[in-house]
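Narrative of accomplishments. A recurring question from our advisory board has been how the design workflow behaves on a single, concrete structure rather than in aggregate. To address it, we present the structure tokens for one chain from the evaluation set, followed by the sequence designed for it. No filtering or post-editing was applied between the two.
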């Protein structure tokens, strides 16, 4: 048994060492990626859920970052956002993403007319909210791209939204610019319906884990219903994340969610592909 345990530890240690090397490698590569323009954005539609069951395709899009790694191919944000936060690169990445997304959004506004999305959502990490000067940089990027303040939505996660005074001030600074705020992944972190009123957010995004179970679990349907009611009473609107089936769409619609996002409508698409999606007049 002793030999076995030792062996298991050796395997574990090797695994940890490999992970550390992988992270170290990615960290070095990430520095170059920013300079070489290997990061790019894809866009997922956030549709309006209309009363008659149809969708509003022009409600908005969410920008999601991707990395075209020269050797590994496409790398997703779950693999490198954490690393970027740890090594101080998240600010530069966040600004690059915001600038690229605002430039694309401005182009759609010029070229697509009534089919252009009305809202651009961009994710903001906790580390970015801790940095001073964030509001000034956001404001400068918006101005450079002719962005109307009300058409930008920055998304924060609830664990960070629940934190101290500094973050609250930073959020209020963004609100003062006219930027909309959304609480991402609602239901997964520490804050709850009872603390929603403490946050200066306009929108609550109900986490995919609730939507996945909504069509089969009455319990989750009730939680969605309660979230929509509380959000509404606070003047906030709601987005259901990760809708994959028509049944899930029907449930969240019936419970009053204003908007929906998920593979049912579209996976995240390249800038060119989402233009096609936006001008398609299917229901
Ligand atoms: P998120 O903000 O909650 O974004 C939604 C994620 O769910 C995206 O994954 C999207 O591709 C995925 N998704 C959307 N609809 C469905 C669905 O119907 N089913 C399933 N299974 N998944 C769906 P992605 O692009 O891998 O992003 C993961 C997370 O990485 C994001 O979660 C966000 O927290 C973070 N992230 C992405 N882009 C950025 C960025 O530019 N900056 C920062 N700070 N974080 C980002
Ligand atoms: Ca988000
Ligand atoms: Ca989310
Ligand atoms: Ca998420």
């Amino acid at each position: 048994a002793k030999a076995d345990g030792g062996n298991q530890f050796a395997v574990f240690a090797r695994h940890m060492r490999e992970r550390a090397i992988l992270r170290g490698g990615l960290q070095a590569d990430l520095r170059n990626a920013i300079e070489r323009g290997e990061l790019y954005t894809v866009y997922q539609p956030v549709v309006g859920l209309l009363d008659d069951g149809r969708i509003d395709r022009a409600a908005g899009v969410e920008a999601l970052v991707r990395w075209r790694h020269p050797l590994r191919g496409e790398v997703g944000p779950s693999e490198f956002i954490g690393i970027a936060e740890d090594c101080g690169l998240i600010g530069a990445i966040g600004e690059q993403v915001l600038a690229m997304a605002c430039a694309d959004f401005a182009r759609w506004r010029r070229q697509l007319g009534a089919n252009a999305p009305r809202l651009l959502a961009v994710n903001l990490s906790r580390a970015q909210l801790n940095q001073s000067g964030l509001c000034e940089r956001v404001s400068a990027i918006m101005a450079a791209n002719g962005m109307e303040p009300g058409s930008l939505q920055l998304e924060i996660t609830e664990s960070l939204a629940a934190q101290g005074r500094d973050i609250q001030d930073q959020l209020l600074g963004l609100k003062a610019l006219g930027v909309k705020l959304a609480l991402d992944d609602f239901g997964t972190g520490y804050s709850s319906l009872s603390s929603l009123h403490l946050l200066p957010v306009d929108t609550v995004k109900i986490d995919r884990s609730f939507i996945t179970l909504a069509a089969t679990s009455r319990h989750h349907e009730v939680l969605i219903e309660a979230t929509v009611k509380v959000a509404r009473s606070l003047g906030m609107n709601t987005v259901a994340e990760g809708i994959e089936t028509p049944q899930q769409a029907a449930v969240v619609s019936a419970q009053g969610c204003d908007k929906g996002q998920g593979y049912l409508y579209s996976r995240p698409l390249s800038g060119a592909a989402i233009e096609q999606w936006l001008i398609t007049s299917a229901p």
